[in-house]
Amino acid sequence: MQLTKFIYFLIEENKIEVQWRSYQIQEQNELNSEMLCSSNSFLNLNPIVSSSINKPLIFRSLRIIKFTVSAKMDQNDAAAPPFTFLTRKPYTPPSWASHLNPLPSHAFSLGHLPTPIHKWNLPNLPNNTEVWLKRDDISGMQLSGNKVRKLEFLMADAVAQGADCIITIGGIQSNHCRATAVAAKYLNLDCYLILRTSKILVDEDPGLTGNLLVERLVGAHIELISKEEYAKVGSVTLTDILKEKLLKEGRRPYVIPVGGSNSLGTWGYIEAIREIEQQLQTVHNQLKFDDIVVACGSGGTIAGLSLGSWLGTLKAKVHAFSVCDDPDYFYDFTQGLLDGLNAGVSSRDIVNVQNAKGLGYAITTSEELKFVKEIAAATGVVLDPVYSGKAAYGMLKDMAENPKKWEGRKILFIHTGGLLGLFDKVDQMAPLVTNWRRMDVHESVPREDGIGKMF
Ligand SMILES: Cc1ncc(COP(=O)(O)O)c(C=O)c1O
């Protein structure tokens, strides 16, 4: 394979940084500023196999030398080899996480990664505060959001164990259950979902709203349980009961816990930190995040983010906005995940959990929904009302109440997805979106006889 590589020297304040990247370029004049300044496919300096240096080009502050390199592309190359999606590949952790134990041996390529990072121009920020958005809502797998990253590791383990079906559990609009159902089908595995609903609905068809439509389209087996039974029996026993039943039927089930949040799933967001580090390497003005803000539902995302940020080069403070349980619950739960990796750190030292649950899990006030609507109208970014909507609402409320705490800081907000959950709130949303009218076509505009052509 013939690749064209550019090596460039970024000369800034007497510091010379050398990086290179590859493009498949037909013509020399395809090189333009956009490719050099905005693409995020930088590579760390790898050994050059063979090269012929062409004459240097000077481009703004960058000195570019064109290389024509004939090399076999390796796994670390930015131009990924074709058809790696849905493959199971050996996993090598970031060097700063290689002492964690156990280490996953493999991961599936399920996500559309890296997800973009862009500036988020939120209204009413404290002085000099910048908010950037990491778009894990567009991580692929039918809008699977943050769950994709955990499933890359969990599904690899399921397949290694010879599973022929997956069991998982969650609320009736669980994004995790839907993400699992989709990923399982991509990998030709059956999927069994235990979904928690209200006592009055537990004996009825659950309908096709939001996540349910996708789960049912991909053929997941749905078992309903009432909230009361769920609380009494517990998620672990419920999945055990279903597992026993399937084993007796000769199946080989693999159980994924609520939210995919166990120590193995935690690797998804340890890996996301490596991804963010690599993305930051591509920015010329030394962008550095002081804080990471994210919604917290079952705890796996914050465990991975906070551990990765603490161990790696990012060192950003992680702020978790809890949408269900209280902060103490999450400090303890996250501690269990960290201990499961022998991380040797206290959760309280690496993450700050704040309560953003409001009226309760998946219950949204009209003020919170109005916020989701206003942010969408102001920035084009649609938040889900159950997770990122509550986290962003909590963050901006905290900023309004404690502006000094956030002034001048650069914040990376992780949009964890969950957009299908929005469809569960359409009735509540309706009064907020009244922007329509019948089009006025003046009588003087001539009408054709008959029905006319539609397209
Ligand atoms: C859309 C969305 N965002 C955030 C979260 C929270 O992530 P975690 O369960 O890892 O705390 C979840 C799941 O609970 C989710 O579905």
Quick description:
This protein has helices at residues 33-38, 147-160, 175-186, 211-217, 227-233, 235-248, 263-281, 300-311, 327-339, 347-350, 366-379, 388-401, 403-406, 426-429; strands at residues 2-12, 15-23, 51-53, 57-59, 62-70, 88-90, 106-108, 117-119, 130-135, 165-171, 190-197, 221-226, 253-255, 291-296, 317-322, 351-355, 410-415.
List the helices and strands and how they pair.
Elements (H helix, E strand, L loop, with lengths): L1 E11 L2 E9 L9 H6 L12 E3 L3 E3 L2 E9 L17 E3 L15 E3 L8 E3 L10 E6 L11 H14 L4 E7 L3 H12 L3 E8 L13 H7 L3 E6 H7 L1 H14 L4 E3 L7 H19 L9 E6 L3 H12 L5 E6 L4 H13 L7 H4 E5 L10 H14 L8 H14 L1 H4 L3 E6 L10 H4 L26
Parallel strand pairs: 9-17, 10-11, 10-13, 11-12, 14-15, 14-17, 15-16
Antiparallel strand pairs: 1-2, 1-5, 3-5, 4-5, 6-7, 8-9
Helix pairs in contact: 2-3, 2-7, 3-4, 7-8, 8-9
The structure holds pyridoxal-5'-phosphate.
Walk me through this protein's architecture:
The chain has helices spanning about 35-40, 145-160, 175-185, 210-215, 225-235, 235-250, 265-280, 300-310, 325-340, 345-350, 365-380, 390-400, 405, 425-430; strands at about 1-10, 15-25, 50-55, 55-60, 60-70, 90, 105-110, 115-120, 130-135, 165-170, 190-195, 220-225, 255, 290-295, 315-320, 350-355, 410-415. The protein is α/β, with parallel strands linked by helices. The strands form four sheets. A six-stranded mixed β-sheet has the order 8-9-17-14-15-16. The chain contains 14 helices and 17 strands. Mean pLDDT is about 85; it is low at about 5-80. Pyridoxal-5'-phosphate binds near residues 176, 300, 387 and 416. Pyridoxal-5'-phosphate (PLP) binds next to helix 3, strand 14 and helix 8.
